[in-house]
């Protein structure tokens, strides 16, 4: 079965590659390559925007007419330990609309969770050397009546330097049925629905979840389009495995029921011990702690297998089997719609703040409290 799956993946990737190569060979008519970048207009080498204060917004791309953004590259200073990428917001507006169709912290959008900095490689998005500070997108982003990209600084300190490229093509008209690119960030500190973290029926029978009522929300979309992927950031305060949480995807009048977090993200039997990357799925960050304690970043892009919807798409996932675990969850969902539509407001800076790490010292303190509750008997072991 393992080799069958690998063969399917290779054949699927090869087929898409062949289509891309065929498309690449076609000489386009009435198409002009264009670029907006932060280059120094004086001809000197100060190729960046500078001194973006807390609370300030800067427009880095504002083009009228018809075109498709093909590539974005952004980097900024100072480094993430000083300037939180979790608190720099990127928004994108299409066709002259006053509302954004893309709204997300810039780090999570490009595959960097919790204001951490690490390498991330996928087909549409990447965070490149050094240490994941080069933020890259190859998502196609069409617009018919103009496109605008805005950066807002909510970090509490100044952005010293912001470098960027936005490469796009200008054309007379878009390809037939070209959709508009959308992305939305969400974050939630989940809790067990009945206050008991009853994973793997450790404390008795579970309470079946058939409706998805208390699931974590990855996307909630009204309209017509197709879903193309998600970056999913999980911080677990327990060493117990969170991956039994099932995906439940509501598509029009149908439900796509999955068998677990690990299964939706094309993994198996728990989280890997080291990061790995494929073009469409992988673990960009794994915890290096006890069991599944700590932070993991999973991604899956539905490039070969978009999920199509005509009127409704709601992507939910359980936090632990039957929603029994406390988890600090965040995600960025990506999709196309037949027209530019607004996305919900994203959590504010206070709500986006990552939960603190839990490690051996905290566990030892909890053990000490347990021993005290048992009279500090010297023979107490802990089982």
Protein model, in words:
It comes from Chitinophaga niabensis. This is DUF2961 domain-containing protein. Keywords: Signal. InterPro entries: DUF2961. Pfam families: DUF2961. With 383 residues, the protein is mainly β. The protein has two domains: 31-40 and 48-177, Jelly Rolls, CATH 2.60.120.1390; 179-199 and 210-383, Jelly Rolls. Helices cover 13% and strands 38% of the residues. It contains five helices and 23 strands. The protein has helices spanning 2-25, 106-110, 261-264, 349-352, 360-373, and strands spanning 31-37, 49-52, 57-63, 67-77, 88-94, 102-105, 120-121, 125-128, 134-137, 141-143, 147-153, 159-171, 180-189, 216-222, 225-236, 247-251, 254-257, 276-277, 281-285, 294-301, 307-309, 312-317, 328-337. Strands 3, 5, 6, 11, 13, 15, 18, 19, 20, 21 and 23 form an eleven-stranded mixed beta sheet that branches. Strands 1, 2, 4, 7, 8, 9, 10 and 12 form an eight-stranded antiparallel beta sheet that branches. A hairpin with a 2-residue loop joins strand 16 (247-251) and strand 17. The longest helix has 24 residues, at 2-25. The radius of gyration is 22 Å and the shape is globular. The two termini are 39 Å apart.
Give the fraction of residues assigned to helices: 10-25%
Order of helices and strands: HEEEEEEHEEEEEEEEEEEHEEEEEEHH
CATH superfamily of the largest domain: Protein of unknown function DUF2961
**Total number of β-strand segments?**
23
Counted by DSSP, the helix tally is: 5
Class computed from helices, strands and strand pairing: mainly beta
């Amino acid at each position: 079965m393992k080799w069958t799956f690998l063969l399917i993946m290779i054949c699927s990737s090869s087929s898409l590659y062949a289509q891309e190569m065929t498309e690449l060979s076609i000489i386009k008519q009435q198409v002009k390559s264009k670029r907006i970048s932060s280059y120094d207009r004086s001809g000197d080498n100060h190729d960046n925007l500078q001194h973006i204060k807390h609370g300030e917004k800067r427009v880095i791309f504002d083009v009228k007419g018809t075109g498709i953004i093909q590539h974005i590259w952004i980097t900024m200073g100072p480094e993430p330990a000083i300037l939180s990428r979790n608190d720099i917001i990127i928004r994108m507006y299409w066709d002259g609309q006053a509302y954004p169709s893309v709204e997300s912290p810039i780090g999570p959008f490009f595959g960097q969770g919790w204001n951490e900095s690490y390498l991330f490689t996928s087909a549409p998005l990447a965070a490149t050397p050094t240490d994941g500070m080069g933020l890259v997108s190859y998502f196609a982003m069409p617009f018919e009546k103009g496109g605008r990209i805005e950066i807002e600084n909510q970090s509490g300190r100044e952005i010293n330097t912001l470098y960027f490229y936005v490469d796009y093509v200008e054309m007379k008209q878009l390809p037939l049925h070209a959709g508009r690119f959308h992305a939305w960030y969400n974050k939630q500190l989940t809790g067990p629905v009945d206050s008991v973290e009853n994973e793997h029926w450790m404390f008795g029978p579970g309470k079946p979840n058939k409706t998805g009522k208390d699931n974590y929300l990855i996307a909630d979309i009204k309209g017509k389009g197709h879903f193309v992927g998600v970056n999913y950031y999980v911080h677990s305060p327990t060493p117990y495995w969170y991956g039994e949480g099932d995906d439940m995807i509501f598509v029009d009048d149908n439900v796509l029921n999955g068998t677990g977090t690990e299964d939706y993200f094309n993994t198996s039997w728990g989280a890997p011990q080291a990061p790995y990357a494929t073009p469409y799925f992988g673990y960009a960050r794994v915890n290096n702690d006890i069991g599944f304690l700590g932070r993991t970043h999973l991604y899956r892009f539905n490039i070969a297998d978009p999920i199509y919807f005509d009127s409704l798409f709601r992507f939910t996932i359980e936090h632990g089997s039957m929603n029994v675990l406390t988890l600090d969850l965040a995600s960025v969902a990506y999709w196309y719609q037949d027209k530019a539509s607004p996305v919900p407001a994203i959590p504010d800076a206070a709500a986006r703040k990552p939960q603190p790490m839990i490690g051996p010292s905290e566990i030892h303190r909890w053990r000490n409290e347990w021993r005290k509750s048992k009279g500090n008997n010297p023979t107490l072991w802990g089982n």
